[in-house]
Structure formats: C-alpha cells, structure tokens
Amino acid sequence: MFKRTKVTDGTATGQVGFRKKSKVPGVMITQYIEKLPEGKSHPDFTRKPIALTIQEGKFAFFKAIVTGDPKPTVVWSRNNGDVSDPARYQSKYDPNSNEHTFEMPHVKPDQADTYKCFAKNEYGQAMVTVVLNVIEVGFKMTKAPQQQAEVANCNFKKVLKRRSKVVPKAEEPEKKEGEIDPKFWELLMSADKKDYERICAEFGVTDFRWMLKKLNEMKREREEEQAEFVKNLSDLKPIHINADGTASFELEFDLLDPSSSIYLYKDGEMIPYTKELGDKMKHCLRKVGRKYIFSMRDLMPEDAGFYQLDVEDVNMFSTDFKMVDFLVKIQEVKAMEREDAVFECVISAPLSKLMWFGKNMPLEQGDKYDIEVSEDKLIHRLVVKDCMVVDKGIYAACAGIKSCNAWLVVEADKGAPKGKKSARKTTRAGGSGTDLQKVAQEQQQKLDKEREERKEKIKAAREAAAEAAAAEEPEKTADSGAGKDKGAAVEVERIDKTSVAATTTVAGDSGSGHSAGKASGGAKQDGSHADAGGGHSAGKASGGARKDGSIADAGGGHSAGKASGGAKQDGSHADAGGGHSAGKASGGAKQDGSPADAGGGHSAGKASGGAKQDGSHADAGGGHSAGKASGGAKQDGSHADAGGGHSAGKASGGAKQDGSHADAGGGHSAGKASGGAKQDGSHADAGGHSAGKASGGAKQDGSHADAGGGHSAGKASGGAKQDGSPADAGGGHSAEEASGGSRQDGSLADAGGGHSAGKASGGAKQDGSLADAGGEPGITSGLSDILATRGQPAELTVKMNTDCDGAWFKDGEPLKSGGGISITKDANIHKLTIHSCRDTDSGLLRFVSGDLSTEGRITVGDVPEFDEDDLHKFSKPVIVRVGQNAAFKMPFQPQESLTVSWFKDGTELKDGGGVKIVREPNHSRLLLRDCLRSDTGEIKIQLKNPFGAVEATSQLIVLDRPGPPEGPVETVETTSSVIEIKWNPPKDDGGSAVTNYIIERQERGHSLWTKLGDVSAEKTSFRDRNVTHGKKYSYRIYAENPQGLSDSLETADSIMAGIMILSGPPGKPKVVSTSKTCINLTWTPPEDDKGVPIIGYQVEKRKKDTNQWLALNAINEPIEDVNYAVKDVTEGAEYEFRVSAINESGAGDASPPSAMACAKNPNMRPCFKDPEDFLVVRAGNSVRVKISYEAEPPPHITWLKDDEPIAPWINVINTEGMSQLVIPSSKRSDSAIYTIKAKNSVGEAFFDVEVRVTDEPKCPGPVELEQTVYGKVAVSWVPSPDQELDDRLYYVVSQHDSNTRMWKTVADRLFANTYTAHNILPGIEYHFRVYAKNDMGLSDPSQSPTWGANSNRVPISSNGVSSMEISFERPPSILVPLKVHTPPKGYQLYMTCAVRGCPTPNVSWYLNNTCINSDKNYYITNSCGVCSMYILRVRENDGGEYRVVAVNSLGKAECSTKLTVRD
C-alpha cells in the first residue's frame, strides 16, 4: 500500500490532491478526491514519451497513450518556450491506436528543451516529462576561424566549443615532418599504462621519457578541465566487439550538473545518438547507474575510426576502433582423444586480442584453453587442451565484424583399455598448414614499407620543390615580353597536401603575389586550382588542378619561362592566356584532351590556343607576341579566336565547331588579320587592327561574318550570312570600301555604323528591299517559371535583339549584384545568376528594358532524401516464409507535393488485393500478404516531388520448400547386391540452399515405402546395398532445405537387382508334433538348386477351407535349418504347409503341401503350474485359492477340506486351465488344509494348500510384577485367549520410566508369558505394557501396576557382610532356549532365546557350524540378553541346525535347534 500525500498544486480551488504512484516509472499522478466512484479512474500513462536526440532538420515526434474514465484531455507544453505555433508544433490523436502524438517538423536547435505532457479529467491529473536534444547540422569539433570571429564580436558563448586537437579529415591541417598525430595523445590519456608501449610503437614514438613527461603535463590540464563538469571518472574500457555483433565502450563518472550535454564524435565529426531507442538508430548511449555505455549496431567497415565522448566542451574518453581482415583463416582440425588441438590465423593489422568462440560460447584463457598471440600481434592461436569427444564442434575467431570458423573433430582412442581413460598425449593436432611466420613477416614488411613510402614520398616532393626553385632562379632576367601587367601572386603548392577548398563553385584568382619560384593557382571547390593569372615569376606559371584534377588558368602571369594552362575537368589544361613570357605560352588541353586558351599572354615566342572539347585549340586571343598568335581548334576541330593579341606576325582565327576559323578580331598585327570559319563554315569577325586586310569569315549559311569594328589600312567587307548575303561591315574603320553583305533573301545587309573613306550602303532585306541601318529593341528570349534546388546555382537569361541596358526586379524590388547574386550583361544577353539557392530566393523575377519586360517565377526546394540510417536499415533483405506477410517501412521527412510509389521488380504496386500501402506524413509502409515463392524480388520505394526523385531498394526473399529434384532418375549400376541411381538438383531451391536428399524405396508387390537414408546436397547419387537378387524396386527422392521437404521425384519403372535364377522345390514337409500352440515341421532340401547356393527357406501355411497361403517368414529372413516350429496357430484349427528354397535371386518353386495337422495338445496327465501352498486371511474377508493346471483331455476337479468334502457354502469355479476355491466370508473355523484333486483318462494329481483364517488377537490378561533380585523385575501376565487358537501368536513388552517419560519396546517375539526387566533403578517409577501380536497385528495393551521405590521390593539381608564384597559376575547361561521351527518356503521366520551373564557375553549365531553374524540374509539383534534372528523369506538352504553360543571371560553357554523348510 502506498502512502498518500496531500498536495495543493495542480488542483482546483477547494480541492485536496492526493499523490498516487503509477505503474509506469516517471509518471506523477494527482488524484482530486480521496475515493473514486465505482467504475471511474484518474488519468494514467500506459505508454509515456521517450527521450530523443535528433539531428537538426529531421522530423521529431513524441507519442503517448493515456487511460482514464472519463476520457482525459491531453495537453503538451515546454519549460522554456511556447508550443502554440502550428507551423512548428502539431498535436494529433489517433482514435484507432489511442495514441497522442506531438510532432515537430524540421526541428531546429532552439526547440531543444524539456517537454511536459498533461492528461486531465475531473478526478485527477497525470504528468510526465521528456527531453529533446537537437544536434546542429555541420557542427564540428574545431571551428577555429569562426571562433576568432566570435571573439572579435565579443560573443564568448559561441566560442566555448571543444578544445580537442582531433578534427575531421577534411579540415586537417598539413602535418609537418616529425609532428605527432593528435590522436596519439588522446589515446594515451584514456589508455592503461600497459598499453603505452603498444600505442607508442603504432605512432612511431621512441622517446618514452619525453613522452611520459609531456603526457603528465597534459593529463594535469585535462583533469582540471574535467573537474569543472564531472567527478569520479573511472573504469575506462576501450571499444570492443561484443558477442551479439555490436561494438561498445564504457566509462563511469558523475555529472556535477545533470543538465550537462554529452556529445559523441567519430573522427572529429559529431554523430547523433539515442538514449532509449536502440533499435531505431545506429548509435546508442545508455546510462546504467554511474556507467555510460556507448554502443553501435549493424557494424560496417566504414564504422572504423576514432571515437570520443565529451561532456560539454571537455573530452572524457577517446578510443580507436580498427577493422582488420583475416589473411590466413583457421582450418579444420582432426585430433585424437586426449590430444591438444590448435587453431591458427593471421590478421592484416596488429591486434592485441581476438574473440574466440567454441560451440557458440565465448572462450577464455584457463585450464582448458590457451590463447596465444605473437609479438607482432599478427598471429593468433587457440589451443584446446586434452581434447575429449564432447569438445567436438565448430570453433570461431572474431576480429571486429570479420570472423572465420572451422570444425574440431575428435576421434576416440580405440587402443585405450575398455572402461578406462587413455593416457594423456603430448602431441598437437591441427594448425593452418602454412608458414604463418612467413605470412606475418610479409604483412609486417608490407606495413613498414607503406609507412616508409609515405615518408620517402614527402621527402622527395620537398627536394623536388627545392630543386625547381633553385633551377628557375636564373631565369628571372629572361623576361623580355612587352607590356608586362602586374597580376596576383600565386602560392606554392605542396605536393603532399590537398589544396584548400573554396566556399563557392569557382574560386577567384590568387593574384597580387610575387614569387621567385613557381606560381600556381589554389584548388577550387571542385578540387581544381585557382587561376594563377597575373603573377610575376622567374619560374614557371601553371594553372592549379580543378575538380577533376585539371589545372586552372595560368593566364595573366609574367614569366621568363613557360606559361601553360593546367588540365581542366576532363584532364585538359586551362587557359594560359594573359601571361607574359619570353618563351612559349600555350593553352593546356580541355575536357576532350585539347589544350586550353593561351589568349591574353605576352610572349616573345609563339602564343597558340590549346585544343578544346572536340580537340580544337583554345583562344589565343589577347596575347602579345613577337611571333605568331593563332587560335586553337574548338569542339568541332576549329581554331579558337586569336583576337586581342598583339603580334608582329600573323593573327588568324582558328576553326570553330563546323570547321570554321574563329574570330581574329581585336588583334594588333603588322601582318594579316582574317576571321576564321564559324559553325556554318563562315569566317569569324576579324575585328582587329591590322595593316593588312580584315575580312569577315563565312557564317552558318556560308556567309562571311561581320568584319566591323576593325581598324585596317586595307579593305573591310562583310561576309555572307545564312542566305548567302555578306554580313554587316558596319562599325569598321577602313581606307577602302565598307559595303553591307547580302541577307537571307539576297538583299545586302546594313553597313551602318561604319567609318570609312569609301562607300556605306544598306544590305537588302528578305523581300528585296534595303534594310534600315538601325532597328527597334525587342526581347527574343524571355523568362519562364523554373524550379531550383536548394544549395545549387540557378541562372536566368534574357536575350534582346539589340545591345541595350535593362534592370532586374524580384517581387517588385530591384536587384543588384552581391549577396550571392550576380547580374551580368554580354552584348544583347542579360543574365541573373544565383550562386546558391535559398528559400528566400523564391519569388517573381522580372526583367525590364525600357518599355519592354518579361517575368518568371523561381521556386526553391529540395529533392527528397532518406536518412542514412533508415536507408541502411531498409536495404537489408526481408526474409519471410511462404504464407507469411512481408512488411516494409521507410521513414522520410514530411514535404509538400510528395508522391510516394512502391515498385516490385520495376512494376508499380497498387493498393488492393494482397497489397496494402499506407502513407503517413513521415513514413510509408508496404504490406504484402500471404507471400508466395514467386513474390521474391526487388522492392523499391520512390519519393518524387517537382524538384526530383529519390529511390531506395530492398530485397524480398520468400522461403519455401524446394522444388522436386530434376529427373529422370538414371540407373547407374544394378547387380545382385547393389542398385545405384542418379538424379539432378531441383531448379528452385526455395530461397535457401538444399541441405540433403532423402531416398525412399518400395519393393514391387508391396505398398509400403521405406526410408533408406539421406545424402548431402553435394551428392546427387545413391547406392542401395540392401537389395535382393531378382527383386524389383521403385525409388523416390526428396530434396530438403530448412523449410521442409520437396515433392518427390519417382522412378518411372521398377529396377531389378541383378538376374533372377530360382531354385527347385524342396521335399514335402512332414509334421513332427503338434500342440495347441505349436506345430513342428521338417523337410528335405531341393534336389536341383540350379547351381546357386541355397541360403535358407520360406515356410507358408494355409488354413483348412481357405485358399490363401500366408508366409511365416520374410524372404530377407530365411530359415537356415530344414525344420521349423510354427507357433502362429489357432488351437483346434487344421493347417497344411509348404516350403520354398531361397537363393540370392529370391524364393524358388514351392514344395508339395504337407498333410493336414490339427493344433491341439497330446493326451497328458494333469499337472499343476506354480501353486501357492500357504494363505493367511483376516476373519470376515473372502478366501480365494487359485490353482492353474495342464491336462489333456480336461480333468475332473475335486476340492477337499482336511481330507473331507467341502461345505456347500464354499464355491468352486472351474475354467479352462484353472480352478478357484472361494469362501465368501471366512471364519477362524475355516482354517484348514484344502486339497485339490485333478483326474482324467491319463491319470490324476493332488495338491495341498494351507489356509489360515485369523484376526487381531485379544489383549493378554492382568500383568504382575515381582522383584527376585536387586535391579531386576519379573513381569508375568495371563495368556491371551487367542493363544491356543493361533500358534503364530507372540507377545511384545513395552517399558516406561519417570526419567525419560517415553515408551520403548524392550522385548519382542516372546512366546512365553514372562519377561525379566533389567536395570531397574531405585527411586524411579516404572510401568509395563504387554501386547499380543499375530499375522494380523497388535492387540490392545495390558497395563502393569506402577513399580516404584517402595513397592514390591524384596528385602536383601547383608548377613553381616559388607555390600562392597558382593560380586555379580557370573558365566553365561541360557534362560530361554531356541524352539524348533518348520516354516513353509518363502515365509518369514523369527528365532529367539534369552541369555544372561556378567560381564555381558558375546553372542554368535551358527548355521551348520558356520557363523552367520555377518550374513546379510539374516537380521540378528541382541537387546538386554534377548537374542533374536529374523529371516525375511525362508529358502531351502536356510534349513539345518542353528546354534547360539554366548561367551564371556567366565565361561561359555550354548543352545541349538533345527529348522525344517516345508515345500
């Protein structure tokens, strides 16, 4: 009973609350009234919410089930905040499951709090609290840059983060040569001292004195930090693999503040965990008392790493989880009994201990097992000592999630003495059979070599960098390029270090640096190096690597050496344009392996464009060269633009996609600047400054491109357009003629805008008219609605027909570049680029140019995604049996416009029939009812929204019985003793491998199928060695797997064993003798055995008046002799018999039938079978004397009593073979000797039975006491009235004294009416009881008078002699001798006699002069001179002379009697 406490909080005014205890821990109940009405109850929780630790952005929810009458209302709240916002908090109730749910979609860190759930009705209230922890996305162990910024802003709360030196791999700084990994110190501070040497060896530390000194300093600092949050930190156990396949580590401590947060990290990155839902998440942290246990389930190779546990920002424990593999696995061991067995294995990495298992039980070092590990910790060995047969089984070695197993087979020692143990053997059995030491040495050398190679690689890279810097130093003075521009400096890239990633997709140029070495761009976000343009270097300026490993643009650098572009994503080299070099500036290869643009470079040599994606060379434009600047080939093999280059030679455009040459415009040349061909084969704009001729190249339609904008002393003419017309030549300055080219309709194009000393005329339009030299602005390509993925870039483009300005607006607000948005304009193309889309970027975008405008809506969202833990759990196959239901469940984050579809083997599943699909806001379930084997296949779930789709796959495996083995059954061999058959495995194994085949056989002519045995799944044949020559057999084969037996494969026809050769008939059987239970036969062997030995005979019988012959023995159980006793007969029936000879082919022809024989006994004199000759019955009970006899013919039965005819009331019941005498109610007078007399024509027989009718005896008469001598009292009594009627009656005497106050038997089996009591002491009162006893039991006692201190004492006269001179010593004497006994055989017997003497004589019993004191067949006692011997059942050899000899120091006395045993 619980103590009731009155409370006032939570109750209504005027109410008194009573605290109640719930069956669910953690629930507080307040009852408003003391006694509840009948049938009513206060609220209570049957399922309370469970604490949750979840990642930011996930779907968090609590569930609770409450009871109470009337039905309670449920309210949710939080300690530090409001839950009224429906967008963040939603309360739901499911009436079917009675679950109250509190949901928080897209949970955020500020929602981490303690939540309360209240259930109320009019009789009370129940309340429970639950904690929600939220892990911030992207939170790392070390955020140094952010911390510095926070310090600058005086925001110290955010600065107080972990101080661990272990950071994620992506943020690891470059490790200097000789620098020790921070993990080394973290491991040492959490390890035992015995592990210091191993950890030092692993990290290559050899200076132990320095290590210990520094470790002690670090420990002191760490302990001071830990003391701020915890106390009593102890029992640190490193991570290990458990027997259930999980990994765990544990430690003990007490939190100073229970609200302190506990974090878990793997390789520096925070990992989410749960405290109670161990089956819902991969990682779990449980608290048991003071102990904190971290565990992982579903171990995978990627789970290996460095794990740490922190309280707030202080590390408490660090441990390293390693995954190893088996290079050499343990092998099967066959050992003799009492021999040692050895299992050996080699692992890939040093490990101090493996987990060994024997027959699914973990093994430890002890008397039975030795676990050995080599010095290098690569070789592990298990020794099973003193193997016995019970040690047989499967043994396994486990190293993390890797394991191997093998059998131990123990063979019994056949040479051992029978019933004794064999001697202990000193030999060992087993081992791997390979040189483990050699394998381990090779692995160790491999590990050392890898370590040394890493060191050598770093060393070689540093030396190469130093040599390159030294070699390029003299080339500083070779810089002879004209117009060197100042660029940005480029940082020297380390060979052994990955470049620092940028926060945007493309990083900016690493300009403004001056270096005497090599200038390269840093790595961009995709792994590429940033542009190294604008750098001044005396060495080589090359572009860094991009995401695909390509080198970024090296353009804009000044170098006395070579400026080449690095490789781009496809392995191509980036643009090397803009570099100043005295050597050669060439573009690297682009995606297709083409060299990149070499444009913009200043060189005294040759500046040529590299090949682009299609193998073309990149633009070489913008380069200053004293040589030749030509454009490289573009995607179609064309050469890129060579425009913008200053050259003393020739600047020509390269070919574009269609083979045309690229624009050579913008180049200054003393030679010729001509436009290359464009996609249509046209030549590109030459637009350059040239002293020669600037002509437009042909466009897509074969026309020549515009040559406008070029300054030339020669002729500037427009090329032909798509319709063959020449392009516009407007805007060109020429001393010659500027004429418009023809348009698609053959008209000449406008020549407007050109400055010329010649003629400017407009081109013809499509209709033949002349076109205007100018046009109205218009939008040729406007905006449309688009969908953008969160975090990805988005681009909106507007094309105008003329070059004009415009403005961008979002939801009516003007937009400018900045804040993640770039607005660019390229001639008549306007672009708005959002670098990383966010939710705030959604809205209506509008572009306005003058009076023209276009608009489109951008919507930002996410592609659906699955949680990694849920995806890993879903990917595991679902295995069910046929007829069972298969269930799949996949959680996901709630989203709008989300479509969930389920597929099986690519076919979409619909709800209905045996398919049940349930869609919830945060998950979907698929239920397949009553699965069939054909349902096995791939199950896929697809989440789809307007932004994309995501899929997750699993496998459904339906287990069933295997299909029948494939036939037909082939007969491999058939002989007189063997039939061998063969079959093929089943097509369908039922989803699990076939374990074995079961073979059954049926003999032709029989209906019974007999199981012959089974064979393993690898064997598809069977040899039947138990066949009979000449017999035919049918076989059927079943395949078996763990699910059951398949249908059978049966042979089409019966198979005969060998060739049949049958023997001739034996001689006619003769009847030797008959009885009612047996007929004995004999016969002679056959005269013709056909040359085949006879192995036995088969006997058949036929009953008279029937036609059916019945075999008395099977053919495979032949009768080897020529005689046989037929016992399967019916008394009085007549039979005839025949015999067949059996050889290896079977039974031959039958003999002629014998003469008819009747199953009856021959005439015989009566005889009695095992009769009982003595019977004792209690008076009043019935007497039944049963006598069995044998006689032929049946005899006449007569009963006599004491040789007189029996009385009429005595019944005699005669049946076949037995006679029974019955006295319904017996009296003592019925005691007599009864004789049975059986007589027939052959003779007669007699038998006597003694019947004794008795009853419990009457009590003896009065008891008298008399003292004859001092210390002895003579007890006498009047005999019982039954003494004369029952010669088996005797007396029992019990004694009681005032000292002990207990009755004890002092004499038994007394046939006299007196007894002498000894050791009667003065001053003590004595009482005696006398009982009469016979075969029926005891009578009532006769009580004696009290014998006291002054009663019935005989005065003793001293006659003047001192009492000290009286001597009581006397020789032995027989007081009561033995009686003669003649008991019946099997009856019990008592013999008694009385002996006295002082000192007490030693009594011995003799039978025929042989001492029987130690014989267990006789129970001998001696109580106060009454010597008794008891025989439980008298035997014939118990008859003879019995003698009792009593001997003491004064003499000897003896008496004897004879015992005669009656039959």
Architecture overview:
The chain is mostly beta strands and 1463 residues long. 6% of the residues lie in helices and 39% in strands. The chain contains seven helices and 112 strands. Strands 30-32-34-36-38-40-42-44-46-48-50-52 form a twelve-stranded parallel beta sheet, with no helix packed on it. Strands 31-33-35-37-39-41-43-45-47-49 form a ten-stranded parallel beta sheet, with no helix packed on it. Strands 1, 2, 3, 5, 7, 10 and 11 form a seven-stranded mixed beta sheet that branches. Strand 10 and strand 11 form a beta hairpin. It is elongated and about 160 Å long. The chain starts with 5 loop residues before the first strand and ends with a strand. The relative contact order is 0.02.
Low-confidence stretches: 1-15, 139-161, 476-774
Strand count, sense and barrel status of the largest sheet are: 12 strands, parallel
Question: Spatial order of the strands in the main sheet?
Answer: 30-32-34-36-38-40-42-44-46-48-50-52
Q: What is the arithmetic mean of pLDDT?
A: 75
> Which quaternary structure do these chains form?
single chain
Percent of residues in beta strands? Answer: 35-45%
Give the structural class.
mainly beta
Query: Total strand count, please?
Result: 112
Shape: elongated
How much helix, percentage-wise, in residues? under 10%
* CA distance, first residue to last residue: 77 Å
Using only C-alpha atoms, the radius of gyration works out to: 58 Å
Task: Count up the helices.
Answer: 7
